[in-house]
Amino acid sequence: MQELQPGLVVIHGNHLEELRALAVQWMRTHPLRPLENEVLLVQSNGIAQWLKLALAEDPHNGGCGIAAALDVQLPARFLWQVYRGVLGAQTTPQSSPLDKAALSWRLMRLLPNLLTNPVFASLKRFLEKDDEQRKLHQLCERLADLFDQYQVYRADWLEDWAAERDQLQHIKGTAQPLDAPNLWQAQLWREVLADVGEGALEQSRAGVHKRFVAHLRSAAQAPKGLPRRVVVFGISSMPAQVLEALKELSRYSQVLLCVHNPCRHHWGDIVADKDLLAHHYRRQPARDVAAAANEYGQPLLAAWGKQGRDYINLLDHHDEPDSYRHLLDGLNGGRIDLFTEPDTETLLGQLQSDILELRPLPETREAWGPVDATADRSLRFHVVHSMQREVEVLHDQLLARFSADKQLSPRDVIVMVPDINAYTPHIEAVFGQVPRSDPRYLPFTVADQGLRGRQPLLIALEHLLKLPHSRFAASDILDLLDVPALRARFAINEADVPTLQRWIDGAGVRWGLDAEQRESLGMPAGLEQNTWRFGMRRMLLGYAAGRSPQLNGIEPYDEVSGLEAALAGPLLTLLDHLEVALQELQQPATPVQWAERLQALLKVFFRPVSDAEELLLNQLLKLLEGWLRTCEVAQFAQPLPLSVVHEAWLSGIEDGGLSQRFLAGAVNFCTLMPMRAIPFKVVCLLGMNDGDYPRQQSPVDFDLMRNDYRPGDRSRREDDRYLLLEALLSARKQLY
User: Fold this and answer.
1) Which helix (H) or strand (E) holds 684?
2) Domain CATH code at residue 708
3) Within-domain flag for 378
4) Is the pLDDT of residue 482 over 90?
5) Which of 484, 458, 514, 481 is nearest to 649 (CA)?
6) Which of 67, 543, 581, 694 has CB 3.0 to 4.6 Å from 717, enough for a Cys bridge?
7) In what order do the strands lie in the sheet with 254-260?
8) Pairing of strands 337-338, 667-671
9) Range of the domain at 486
10) Is 330 exposed, middle or buried (0-12, 13-18, 19+ CB in 10 A)?
11) What CA–CA distance (Å, rounded) separates 472 from 307?
12) Which residue has the higher pLDDT, 305 or 712?
């Protein structure tokens, strides 16, 4: 088994499939030892699955024959493991006490006691009339997220604030005093560090990174536990801190970076903020054209490519091609730049070629002749009046394309939308209404859907967590009985639900648990009529007395009789449990007490009837345990209302990580997500409306990074613009 040469190997290419082929060939040519994991760093589940499919391909077709022993991770999670492996578990905790989750609850504990300090006057005004602590919780989450970004993108600010230098350093080396309205941020950071204790700054992500870099630079030999090879694939943007860590890791490990680069030339000078990028690339030469033409360059690349421009610029500071060029002599003809000219017979190919060659508009007009729109269908725009109509037109257009091209299959089509949850009902209504036997049927799959609002068990759980504000309407209880896991817990069959509904309607149940519960919602006292207690008394008296005069003001409901009468027992048990849950959920409690209550809630109301429900319940319990551990790290033990606990618990259910389903062999519907530039023959984009895309995300007014741009900073609007560029470049035949 040959030893791997350490170093940073950077491969650029404009076609992701060629980068994938090279990565797979590299792993085949330089295999690891048996039982040694191949570490792959990706940023989306789609790229991960697409790469695994290539590895599992038959060796005669360029694959490895099997995709096994793969350790697929997100870069941030992987780097923290490497930090711990190099620096030791004794000095580096499993998770930083200043990570976003723990920091949020630490701030929840600290902030109320700091509001008497005049420097926090603006926060005190914001938190007035916050009896349920929801404003406090939301503010602490925003602050924790902001400080987490500071640790990655503005570590120098936090270091200054910890040393009581209330200033903001700029990229050009100058420092500006922190203005008075924002002095509270520096003071709050110092309070957090003091609360964590001695060495707090060294335990932050920025502090651990700094120690990691210093340790590797001074190490006499390779630290134990480092992976021998790390493959970074399909990531179009990484912070400077992460790139620096990978560069230092490459002293002792082989780091293969496959970079999707839309242009073969140096293209940093065609966009704004040129003064931040005034240097010559070591790798891509500047294109030899007139200065005026180069200043404007390719307009789409200039307008949409800022994020990729910054990433390639940061990467160029660490890239030394001459140190690894010889390693590729036996692969791909020794090329380290895999730029391929697209097919220029179509308008789409010509546009991709313009971006590749950095052609300004005057040169583009000279290079290509006029377009015959009737014959060239590679680029199409449709204007319609609603989301439903968008999906209907898409269905018709796909049918036309499949009829015209027999080589085109559903798996060759991807449809991306800004918000998949908003489009899912329309997709189901159009694509799902065609029976499989119909020639117009198109197999499809919808990825990236949120579980909340879609999974019946979760919908029922959310309803239970809202019991303190519930009217206990008859329809609400019947909705709960539609959930299989809840019916199974109370031994109610699906066929029994219509009978129960008939009884509930006949007994006059409308809303309200009882008169006392109605009174808690602002109704006058003593209104028992048409409540659940009123209706259940009528049912039970009717079962006991049949047709008889009223007793103590209760009119019997005699439909409850015979063997069916046994159903009244489970219904009464359900209502009793709901009453007990209502009393418990109304009372604030500590995180430990909430964990006990919520575990009991799941046990009392749900019995899983499928593997998916079993998995979901285990995931909910795991989230609850994780939240409890986070509170312990943050030393948070104050009483909390249900509204805060509800969101803190269930917000984690949407974090799919790298496990969500994608590439299922049908027309793929998914969300427009960063770093998902997988090539498809047909790429369709829906929801590209003015105001909807690029998506709006206004920064909080106390985000100090919004007016201090540095290369590598993330922005939702810039992410979306680069997503559009990646979508254009990943279409091989048609962009819809």
Assistant:
1) strand 680-685
2) 3.40.50.300
3) no
4) yes
5) 458
6) 694
7) 70-73, 38-41, 229-233, 254-260, 7-13, 337-338
8) unpaired
9) 456-604
10) exposed
11) 51
12) 305
Residues 6+ apart with CB under 8 A from 130: 136
Question: Does residue 314 share a domain with residue 196?
Answer: no
Single residue among 184, 203, 222 that ends a domain in this structure: 203
Q: Do 600 and 485 share a structural domain?
A: yes
The amino acid occupying position 644 is V
Q: What percent of the chain has pLDDT over 90?
A: 61
pLDDT in tens, 416-458: 999 898 999 999 999 999 999 999 999 999 988 888 878 899 9
Domain count, the chain: 4
* Amino acid, res. 690: D
No. of helices (H) and no. of strands (E), the chain: 29, 13
634 burial type by CB count under 10 A (0-12 exposed, 13-18 middle, 19+ buried): buried
- Other CB atoms within 10 Å distance of the CB of residue 627: 21
Do 423 and 493 belong to one domain?
Answer: no
- Residue with the larger pLDDT of the pair 526 and 194: 194
Instruction: Give the residue-averaged pLDDT of 393-419.
Output: 93
Q: Which one, of 168, 178, 169, 106, lies nearest residue 137 by Cα?
A: 106
Question: For residues 674-710, b (16+ Cβ closer than 10 Å) or e, as one string?
Answer: bbbbbbbbbbbbbbbeeeebbeeeeeeebbbbeebbb
CA distances from 84 to 41, 93, 95 (A): 18, 7, 10
> Tokens 């949020």 identify what position?
104
Q: Is 431 left (phi over 0), alpha (psi -120 to 50) or beta?
A: alpha
Residue 724 lies in a domain: yes
Distance (Å, whole) CA 44 – CA 301: 23
Structural domain contains residue 166: yes
In a domain, 622, yes or no: no
| 506 and 600, same domain (yes or no) | yes
**Which structure tokens are listed for 338?**
């895999």
Whether the bond between 694 and the residue before it is cis, its omega within 30 degrees of 0, is yes
- The b/e string for 244-271 (b: 16+ C-beta within 10 A; e otherwise) is bbbbbbbebbbbbbbbbbbbbbbbbbbb
The token pair at 77 is 């999670």
| Interhelix angle 240-249/205-218, nearest 10 degrees | 30
* 444 and 469 together in one domain: no
pLDDT at 273: 45
Give the DSSP letter of residue 181: G
* Residue 322: strand, helix, or coil: helix
- Assess whether 14 and 63 both reside in one domain: yes
Determine the Cα–Cα distance for residues 310 and 379; give it in Å rounded to an integer: 28
* Sign, CA torsion 56/58/59/60: negative
Residues present in the chain in total: 736
Which single residue is written with the structure tokens 């418990």?
584
Give the list of residues 6+ apart from residue 404 with CB closer than 8 angstroms, or none.
none
- What are the residue ranges of helices labelled H in 634-736? 642-650, 716-730
Query: 621: burial class by Cβ within 10 Å (0-12, 13-18, 19+)?
Result: middle
- State phi, psi for 433 to the nearest 5 degrees: -85, -15
Is there a single domain that holds both residue 69 and residue 124? no
